[in-house]
From TrEMBL:
This is Ankyrin repeat protein. Gene3D superfamilies: Ankyrin repeat-containing domain (1.25.40.20). ANK repeats lie at residues 115-147. It comes from the Bacteria. Keywords: ANK repeat, Repeat. The keyword Cell cycle does not apply. It comes from Legionella steigerwaltii. The lineage of its organism: Bacteria, Pseudomonadati, Pseudomonadota, Gammaproteobacteria, Legionellales. InterPro entries: Ankyrin_rpt (IPR002110), Ankyrin_rpt-contain_sf (IPR036770).
Length: 349
């Protein structure tokens, strides 16, 4: 047993709290939730009694081990503290670390799994802010790189589109804390897919966070992924309007705007395929996007950007001529070989 306690089963906890499972009330569920927050996970929110029982059973299984370093997942190489970190058990980890001297605690916290991740990596991936604070306070190293080239801050920055706005808010809080603790060299590292910290936060569409990263790591503005997609390309494909506006404002004369991807797509190609009308308008407000050579650039499908023109309705597709006229752009700027003066409907590849 890691933390000495008289509670070794679910029933022990129920009895300890003076409850009867057959007559348990809502206020008693709140009492159990409070116990879990004190002993297991400080930000735990119970959806029902079963969720409390599941949490307690995970805690009991870990606490029954001989030490925090005991291996509990041989496939991934997780020890107790790493498994607890994956679950976000900040109170359990903090109380467990109190049983160790400082040197041993630091060594254990920074021990790596089969894939070279640490407890801090796992806490960052889960977006567990209270746990990240605990681990950093006890000596966790934020600069350890995993086997896939990721530091904890890189894992914290990966957004799940299904996450709620509140969850994303906590994720950004984790990123800001880790940014303070991570050295510049680590923060500027790219993973094995060529994704940098700057590229990975673009889906949040938070220009303040984006700028904060650039202030620490200005060289990241030049990073591209393995498909030669830069920050503007990522912002367009993720429909991150605020980031697109930021880049066009602060890098209006940069090659960032005219660079192509590995399939020869320009920012305009991507905007017409994946962007929004607002993003398209932002690009056309930039002088580089009005350059004749840029407008006539062909992608790997031998198409110019405006040939992907789509008004989101098959009954309301503008012609290239109409589109250009509305924006005061000379229609003759488009080469005759590229434009056949027809209506272009959505293209999918």
């Amino acid at each position: 047993m890691i933390i000495v306690t008289s509670i070794t089963s679910w029933n022990d906890l129920i009895v300890d709290q003076g409850m009867d499972l057959t007559t348990i009330q809502d206020e008693q569920i709140g009492k159990l939730e409070g116990w879990c927050r004190k002993h297991i996970k400080s930000d735990f929110e119970a959806s029902n009694l079963k969720s409390i029982e599941a949490l307690v059973m995970d805690y009991l299984a870990l606490n029954s081990q001989s030490s925090l370093s005991a291996v509990v997942d041989t496939d991934l190489g997780y020890n107790v503290i790493q498994k607890a970190a994956k679950l976000g058990f900040d109170r359990f980890i903090e109380n467990g670390l109190k049983t160790l001297n400082e040197a041993k605690a630091i060594k254990l916290i920074n021990q790596q799994t089969k894939y070279k991740t640490t407890a801090l990596h796992l806490a960052a991936l889960g977006g567990f802010f209270p746990l990240i604070e605990v681990l950093l306070e006890h000596g966790a190293d934020p600069n350890i790189i995993s086997s896939t080239g990721k530091a904890p801050i890189h894992l914290a920055s990966y957004i799940n589109v299904s996450n709620s706005k509140e969850k994303q808010k906590i994720q950004k809080k984790c990123i800001r804390l880790l940014l303070l603790k991570t050295n510049q060299q680590t923060a500027e590292a790219c993973d094995d897919m060529g994704i940098s910290l700057l590229l990975s936060v673009i889906p949040f569409d938070d220009e303040k966070l984006f700028e904060k990263i650039l202030l620490k790591c200005p060289n990241l503005i030049h990073t591209k992924d393995l498909h030669e997609q830069n920050a503007l390309h990522h912002a367009i494909m993720n429909q991150s309007v605020h980031i697109v506006r930021y880049l066009l404002t602060h890098y209006s004369h940069s090659e960032l705007i005219t660079e192509r991807t590995d399939n020869y797509s320009t920012a305009l190609h991507l905007a017409f395929r994946y962007g929004t009308p607002q993003i398209i308008e932002l690009l056309f407000a930039n002088h580089q996007c009005l350059d004749k050579r840029f407008l006539n650039s062909l992608d790997e499908h031998q198409k110019i950007a405006v040939s992907y023109l789509d008004k989101q309705s098959s009954n309301n597709v503008e012609s290239i001529e109409t589109f250009m006229k509305k924006r005061g752009i000379d229609k003759n700027i488009i080469s005759q070989t590229s434009s056949n003066n027809v209506l272009f409907k959505p293209q999918f590849f």
